Amino acid sequence: MKYDWKTIHERLQASQRILEQGWQPSPDETQQILKHRAQRLAKKPQVLEQATDTISVMEFELGEETYAIELSYIDEVCPAKQITPLPGIPAYMLGIMNVRGKIMSVLDIKTFFEIPKKELTNLSQVIILHSDLMEFGIIADRSIGPRIITVNSIQSPLSTFSGVRKEYLKGLTEKQVVILDANKILNDPTIIVNEIFNIT
């Protein structure tokens, strides 16, 4: 193959001048560039107009059902050990326990939803809930762990849902996880718990 070295040399010199001077497109080239750019942008996936809202929850078991509470209302989760029963307490209270130097009431909210009670096991956990004015623990038969749930996946509570405290329910997910309204539970004036105090 015979090369036209003169033409190649001229092209190399032209390229070198462009690099040294900085390339500036001609008006026709500019229009072509803008046209290609518009075509590329038109092919990009459309961005959702509104981001999907989510909430972070802690899932746990009560009986044979899965429940969840928003993490923003949870201080910690600890083993259900050394719960001391007290005489004359309501049926929904198991007793009190020492949590990091605080005497805290422990509730069994299965009573609110007519779920049969069961003996505590090694899997039983106490979920510590808090608000500005209230703090207590609730018993979970087993802690499943944190999850992120999309808000639009939460359905209204079923009208057939049994239990005397349906107002404590925030909704039900597509996977049949019952979302509890921790704010209503913590601020229900009918729930009487022992005052929390520091051990000295």
TrEMBL record:
UniProt-listed InterPro entries: CheW, CheW-like_dom_sf, CheW-lke_dom
Domain CheW-like: 54-191
Any single Gene Ontology cellular-component annotation: cytosol
Superkingdom: Bacteria
Gene Ontology biological process: chemotaxis; signal transduction
Protein name: Chemotaxis signal transduction protein (CheW domain)
